[in-house]
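Good morning,

Attaching, inline, the backbone tokens for the sequence recovery test we're adding to the shared suite. The designed sequence is right after.
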């Protein structure tokens, strides 16, 4: 008779949960593991929630439900990878205290529970190192004067500026010989929005005319 198991899958962002990204891979790993080890999946629980924080279990109702199901069936919970539970040692220790066996497919069914603490400690350290490297890289980029931010939003702003310049060019060509202050008043009277919002002024007119090659 096959041993029952409870499968638990987790992705950490709502977008991943909607798209199924990562979930199919976890299901395949758990299903293949169960088949190879003569186990039967008696329940499946899927979570879309971060693994961070001391209160992570409180924010993961599906994991809590999986624990209840496993206790009811007196069977282990199986996950594809340890980080689907958490990379936090304290969190893993808390789960071990629930007295429900956990099996990680990539580690095998016979791994001692103590080793899960060791693997979690390594994963936690790895996450800390990656975070520190990222912080230092961003600081260095900022020091070199690189612009940090959303590239997509930058592209949108650039396209909007190009559209605005195309609309402005024929108007500015017609009145380019007026004083900049008068041009600013004319553009404001026509309710043409300034590049940075608000009313036009001599400086914003000059910048626009320079950009269009009119001065």
């Amino acid at each position: 008779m096959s041993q029952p198991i409870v499968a638990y899958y987790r992705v950490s962002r709502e977008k991943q949960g909607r798209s199924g990204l990562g979930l199919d891979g976890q299901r395949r790993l758990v299903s293949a593991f169960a088949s190879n080890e003569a186990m039967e999946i008696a329940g499946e629980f899927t979570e879309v929630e971060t693994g961070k924080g001391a209160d992570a279990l409180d924010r993961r109702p599906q994991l809590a439900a999986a624990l209840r199901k496993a206790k009811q069936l007196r069977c282990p919970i199986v996950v594809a990878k340890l980080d689907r539970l958490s990379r936090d040692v304290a969190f893993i220790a808390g789960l071990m205290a629930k007295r429900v066996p956990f099996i990680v497919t990539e580690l095998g069914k016979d791994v001692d529970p103590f080793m899960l603490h060791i693997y979690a400690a390594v994963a936690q350290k790895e996450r800390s190192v990656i975070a520190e490297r990222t912080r230092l890289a961003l600081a260095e980029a900022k020091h070199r004067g690189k612009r940090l931010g959303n590239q997509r939003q930058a592209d949108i702003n650039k396209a909007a500026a190009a559209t605005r310049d195309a609309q402005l060019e024929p108007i500015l060509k017609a009145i380019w010989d007026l004083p900049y202050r008068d041009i600013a008043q004319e553009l404001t009277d026509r309710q043409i929005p300034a590049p940075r919002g608000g009313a036009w002024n001599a400086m914003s007119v000059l910048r626009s005319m320079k950009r269009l090659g009119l001065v």
